[in-house]
Each structure stands twice: as structure tokens, then as C-alpha cells.
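hiii so um. not sure if this is the right channel but i have a protein structure encoded as C-alpha cells and i wanna go backwards to a sequence. like what aa goes where. can anyone help
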């Protein structure tokens, strides 16, 4: 749940949950769209997970908030467990944001469709169905920029 997590803006400044919600409500009123994605990166005995809540307006620009967590690699022994955890983290964030906005949310999955380039392609159908069954649009690579670009950037810091 987002309310108990450390939320940061793109400048890596920590913001309170209350200010996060206040900003989401304000952006929604201004016509921004919302896009949520997660990515993970292995570091030694830990896995760094980052979930981003991105917002975009065609005339006003874009921005994001992110949540970073580190967990033991032992708790995520397979690629599937990591990718599933990314999807669940994104959905949890979408459930939370959805309470405060009236616009459609897209969930960006860090999976690819090309079996030659992406080991994650085998999870495509399962995860897209998971996301769409919750009422969200599901995007995968190369269109899943909230996970494969924005969240990816913060997994490496």
C-alpha cells in the first residue's frame, strides 16, 4: 500500500502521502493522464523494485512520483516471481490512485512480445489479462515507458 511507503518526486525529494494525493487530485482536475509502471533490478543479494506514478498532459508536460523498495533475492527466486511482483506493485498503486481521480489509468508492464529479445514474453498473456481484468489499459514494450524507461531509471540509482 502506497500510504506506508516513501514517495519521491523526480528530484528525489521525499513527499508525504497527503501531498502526493493532493497533487494527484490537482493534476486530475487539470486534465492529466496517469500511467503506472514498475521495474526491478538485481543487486548482489537484493532486488530493487521501483514503482512510478507518471502523469502527462499534451500541452502542459509530464512528471512522475516513485516508490523504491529493496527486498531479498531469496524472496524472488525466479524471473516470473519478479515480473509478477512488478505487476502486483503497479496494480496496488493503480488501485490507490484510482480512488482520487476520474480519468483512465494505464498500467505499463516491463514485458516484451518478442521471444527472441525478451525472456519475459512468456508472461505476456497472463499479465495483460491480469491488468485488463482490473479495468486498466495494459501496455507492454516498446510502449510501456512508465516501467521500461522511467522506473528503470530509478532502479539503477
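sure thing!! here u go:
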Amino acid at each position: 500500500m502506497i500510504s506506508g511507503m516513501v514517495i519521491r518526486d523526480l528530484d528525489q525529494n521525499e513527499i508525504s502521502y497527503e501531498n502526493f494525493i493532493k497533487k494527484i487530485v490537482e493534476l486530475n482536475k487539470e486534465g492529466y493522464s496517469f500511467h503506472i509502471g514498475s521495474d526491478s533490478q538485481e543487486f548482489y543479494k537484493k532486488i530493487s523494485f521501483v514503482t512510478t506514478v507518471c502523469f502527462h498532459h499534451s500541452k502542459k508536460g509530464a512528471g512522475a512520483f516513485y516508490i523504491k523498495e529493496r527486498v531479498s533475492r531469496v524472496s524472488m527466486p525466479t524471473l516470473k516471481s519478479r515480473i509478477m511482483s512488478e505487476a502486483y506493485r503497479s496494480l496496488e498503486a493503480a488501485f490507490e490512485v484510482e480512488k482520487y481521480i476520474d480519468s483512465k489509468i494505464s498500467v505499463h508492464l516491463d514485458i516484451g512480445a518478442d521471444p527472441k529479445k525478451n525472456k519475459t514474453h512468456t508472461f505476456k498473456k497472463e499479465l495483460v489479462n491480469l491488468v485488463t481484468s482490473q479495468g486498466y489499459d495494459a501496455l507492454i514494450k516498446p510502449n510501456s515507458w512508465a516501467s521500461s524507461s522511467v522506473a528503470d531509471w530509478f532502479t539503477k540509482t
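oh and Helices lie at 17-29, 79-98, 124-133, 145-155.
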